[in-house]
Structure formats: structure tokens, C-alpha cells
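Sequence only, no structure available. Ideas?
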Amino acid sequence: MSSHLVMSWQNQEHLEQKISWNKKKITVLNDKKKNADSEKAKIIKEEIKDLRNEKKHNQQELDELKNLYKISDEIEEI
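Reply:
I predicted one. C-alpha cells follow.
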């Protein structure tokens, strides 16, 4: 396995961890938002929005990496 693919694999694991962490953090914040006053709920809502955007971005990067693996595997088969 080339060093480039090893780095990509490490990036994939890192992105998967970040996505998982974001999901957990969003769940915690949603629970906090239920019990918060309206001002605090607005702040929490913004944090959730930021985390969702980050999660979406990380998921797109992860999908791109997986696509690169697929293309790389197809090239190696040729």
C-alpha cells in the first residue's frame, strides 16, 4: 500500500471520528436545548447548526476519499 493510501486511510478514520463526535455532541446539545431558557436555547441552536454544517462537510470529504479508494482499486485491477 502506498504512503498516499495510508495517509488517506488515516484521514478517513479521523473524519469518521469527527462525524461520530459531532453526532454525539448534537444529541447532547438537543437535550440541553429542551431545558434551556429562550436566550440560551438560541445559542445552543446556533452551536447545533455549526456542528451540523461541520458534520456535513466532513461527510462530503469522507465520501470523496471513499470514491478515491474505489477509483484506485479499479485502476489497480486494470
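The chain has two helices and no strands.
Hope that gets you unstuck.
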